Amino acid sequence: MASKGFFNAFADVWMHEGVRTPMVDYCGALGHISPTDLGIKAAREALKRAGIAATEIGSVITGNMAPGDFDQFFLPRHIGLYAGVPQEVPAIMTQRICGTGFELFRQAGEQIEAGVCEAALVVGTESMTRNPIAAFDHRTGFKLGAPVGFKDYMWEALKDPAAGINMIQTAENLAKKYNITREEVDQFASDSFAKAVAAQAAGFHAGEIVPVVTEKFELEGYKARGIKLQGKVTEVSADTHPRISPPEVLAKLKSVYEGGVQTGGNSSALVDAAAACVVTSGAYAKAQGKKPLARVVAAAAVGVPPEIMGIGPAPAIRLLLERTGLTLDQIGRFEINEAQGAQTLAVGRELGLDMSKLNVNGGAIALGHPLAATGVRLTITLARELQRSGLRYGISSACVGGGQGIALLIENPEGK
After folding, report:
1. What is the pLDDT of residue 3?
2. Active-site positions?
3. 189-237, pLDDT tens digit by residue?
4. Buried b / exposed e across 133-160, counting CB within 10 Å, b at 16+?
5. Which of 41, 56, 254, 357 is the least buried, fewest Cβ under 10 Å from its Cβ?
């Protein structure tokens, strides 16, 4: 595929210590919590870990796909205000479906390099559980004998009406195009689970998680918000989906489509979570005596055919490499969202990727894919992994429903 799309190179944009909530299974312990409040929790902790006062933030850039409550329109503003950002600082909601979290970093980089601000707060938050049962047809009432239009928002959102196809079918198309077998997809999924369990046991994931507890978010002169855990739960501190899943166990699951390769066990997990990070100019970091986590070097976004939307990371990554003059083997780690197992394997084959560099701490099949939070989570994980392994360059990337791909190149200046 030709490397078409848009590209941003950033000369002096840096990400600081980021954080996320645990990623908790659909209808689990975080299922009743507004994505706004999950976002506030992550935002407050990101500022704390970065050692940057909320009053220093000049822009709030948030992402959230599905409305988790009736005040979703105010989500960016409320996250900023309740995180302590000054009232005069504006906030915006950004949407690129599964690529939203990466887009937040891209827009932060653009704003910083344009002189709009010196420090931006980026927050991706998603409650898959609170996706509504919705109808768009009944503002004028219910007509006798006419079908009732209420549908599952999340299930319907998986379908691309232009191509007449859903996201699982796009992965099946890639499996056929790249001759990927069910056995290969199940093995890939099993490996993702094993890596996630090992990283969890080693404490790696805990290093980027803020435990969620019952607490209030106060804002002087305004109604308090907050989180209230239910039942006897007093703290949620770990991801819930990772578990050892041998290929022979995964092989027993029924495929979504007869004769297909995708199942509930080798596709990304449904989870609720939020992730946040502070992005600043290097000049600001130096003046404040802060040591950033990594440099945001470049971003790329491309379009691909909707019916094989999952291949999107491949041309996005190619565009990054082409414009930055780097080669694939110079990239020490890749974090590519595991929307579906066949989709990620197809990207690997298209690029000729060394799969030992990919998602070394587990991917979305094991950990989950909370849409707008995913890109922030992947980029934080990647930056931390580059530091842990002493490597220099890493790329985080995802496919995007409707036929797009997006990727970020980050650098650990102390890496090799």
Report:
1. 53
2. 98, 399
3. 999 999 999 999 999 999 999 999 999 999 999 999 999 999 999 999 9
4. eeeeeeeeeeeeeeeeeeeebbeebeeb
5. 254
